[in-house]
Amino acid sequence: MTALAEGTSTLTEDRPPEPARRPGGLKRVLQYTVLVILTILFVSPLVWMAVTSFKTQSDAIDPDPQWVPANPTTSAYDQMLGSDDTPVLGWLLNSVLAATGQALLVVATAALAAYALARMDFPGKKIIFGMIVATLFVPAVILIIPNYIFVAELAWLDSLTAVIVPGAASAFGVFFLRQFFVGLPQELEEAAYVDGAGPFRIFWSVVLPLSKPALATLAMLAFLTNWNDFLWPLYVLFSADQQTLPAGLATLQNANAVRYDLLMAGAMIAAVPVLLLYLAAQRFVIQGVSRSGLKG
Amino acid sequence: MASVDTRSAGPDTLGPAERAPAPGRRGPSRHGGRWVPYVLLAPYLLLFFAFVLAPIVYGIWVSLHIWDFTLPNKPWTGLGNYRDLFDSESVVGPDFIRAMKATAIFTILSVPLLVVIPLGVAMLMNAKFPGRNLFRAVYFAPYVLGVAVIGVLWRYILDGNIGLLNHYLGILGLPDDIAWTTSTPAAWVALVGVTVWWTLGFNAVIYLAGLQDISPELYEAAIIDGAGPWARFRNVTLPGLRPVLQFVVITTIIASANMFGQSYIITQGQPGNETRTAIMYIAETGLKNFDMGRAAAMSFVLTVCLLLLSGLVMLLFRERKPKPLKGVSA
């Protein structure tokens, strides 16, 4: 409650033409206190994961938590990376390939479809768009069983195709990009048309360059969704070397219930690449997510 | 695949002939031949029909059969699978009801927290101050890691014997032997807590964007009218956030009702399948035991529940709007 009231008042304080500036010192201190406590709550588990990954098996289960490992070692990593049963780097590669592949597929198919729906008139348009929007509200549970049967029929089980293709039919992607295209000024496209450009050329050299932010946003969201997908890869992939990181980590846990040193090393291998990517593209990711809410 | 190739290639050859009479109207939208929009739509629609529309229809068909994936015969059973789900004498009935209950408990506990806490955090960050982007980035970080990493990590922290959480509870003089992953009220607290920790930043970022869209003039006008912080929150912030709030509520309900990874990794459904959620039971029934007819029937029951719930939320958000102007729904 105080936090809420606090928020609104700091908002008014911070704009240049403040009508009535009030002393905000105490509020600012309170605000920072809350923010720092939250930061500790968010960061310390991640630090704990990192620290534990450099412990011995017995130090990892010391009832007196060691924030600094008594016997620092990379043995957990050595074991993870050296074992054929746990090809973690292969899982990492699979995850990267699957998420990138799906993101590209989503953006390509959704952009083409969204452009047709935003700028062209044709018989069946309303029905097609209506169906796509209707499925926005259909929860994904309903697709699991029949899509598993389809994927099995297509002989895609236990291959990355199974985690790339079925999930690429993004109703959200079409909806989101259509909104964006509708909002673009039409003059440039008309000018290109007058200059003799055909529809594909207009789409490729006029519309797409103008849409980079929206396309990147969608790609980022699609990448994250696929990267975090857990249930589907867990069941459609079986061989040790075909797993994505989330599915692989789960099998790792089933096999090494209390080898926390190993589990944390595995989790680190899964976490560090995304965290680095996230650090580099942080603003971009956050902008993407915030937009998804405004347009939705 | 092949059918669409011919479909797009066929009209393609007609293109030039079609294009000839077309030119000369206004805007590019009318031009390039009648087949162009269909060509643009074809790749998407292929995926959409194959992996969204067809599965929905096919899933209904499957749910009306005794459909064991591994057996050649899949006899028709009509509504038999659905009857089994609600029959306490059947093999799956009690388990299904328990799983639906688990999903309901989790949704009821987590949605309010995930709607309210991120809003508070977003309001704390809704101003320009040093370090703001850093805080925002930190709160969002767990979401990026995905459920498997955070599940494995929290399984360790929540460990009843050597976990950090019990250790620090002990230091604070609280009970230090709580079985967070294997006993029930505690397991729900753990699952909800981890989920809040994991996705708080996601909702906060969406709220923050919504807050920044509210015109500062509205707040200034409210201050001039003598509105205190609470009045400003109720009369400016909340109405301004309505579409964003609706979005957050619906997406959070759907995400919570689809909760799978946390239970799968952290509690493994324990104790005695009490934290096995509906979707977890569906996956087990259909994809592990290959009883796909019943699993499909369960998916439909869960979907219908979710659609009703989403519809209800939309009604709630629309209800109060006769006085202000329309047009927020976009």
From TrEMBL, chain B:
<keyword id="KW-0472">Membrane</keyword>
<dbReference type="InterPro" id="IPR051393">
    <property type="entry name" value="ABC_transporter_permease"/>
</dbReference>
<dbReference type="GO" id="GO:0005886">
    <property type="term" value="C:plasma membrane"/>
</dbReference>
<feature type="region of interest" description="Disordered">
    <location>
        <begin position="1"/>
        <end position="30"/>
    </location>
</feature>
<keyword id="KW-0812">Transmembrane</keyword>
<feature type="domain" description="ABC transmembrane type-1">
    <location>
        <begin position="100"/>
        <end position="313"/>
    </location>
</feature>
<dbReference type="Pfam" id="PF00528">
    <property type="entry name" value="BPD_transp_1"/>
</dbReference>
<dbReference type="GO" id="GO:0055085">
    <property type="term" value="P:transmembrane transport"/>
</dbReference>
<feature type="compositionally biased region" description="Low complexity">
    <location>
        <begin position="15"/>
        <end position="26"/>
    </location>
</feature>
<feature type="transmembrane region" description="Helical">
    <location>
        <begin position="35"/>
        <end position="61"/>
    </location>
</feature>
<keyword id="KW-0813">Transport</keyword>
<protein>
    <submittedName>
        <fullName>ABC transporter, permease protein 1 (Cluster 1, maltose/g3p/polyamine/iron)</fullName>
    </submittedName>
</protein>
<feature type="transmembrane region" description="Helical">
    <location>
        <begin position="104"/>
        <end position="125"/>
    </location>
</feature>
<feature type="transmembrane region" description="Helical">
    <location>
        <begin position="186"/>
        <end position="209"/>
    </location>
</feature>
<dbReference type="InterPro" id="IPR035906">
    <property type="entry name" value="MetI-like_sf"/>
</dbReference>
<keyword id="KW-1133">Transmembrane helix</keyword>
<feature type="transmembrane region" description="Helical">
    <location>
        <begin position="244"/>
        <end position="266"/>
    </location>
</feature>
<comment type="similarity">
    <text>Belongs to the binding-protein-dependent transport system permease family.</text>
</comment>
<keyword id="KW-1003">Cell membrane</keyword>
<feature type="transmembrane region" description="Helical">
    <location>
        <begin position="137"/>
        <end position="157"/>
    </location>
</feature>
<feature type="transmembrane region" description="Helical">
    <location>
        <begin position="295"/>
        <end position="317"/>
    </location>
</feature>
<dbReference type="InterPro" id="IPR000515">
    <property type="entry name" value="MetI-like"/>
</dbReference>
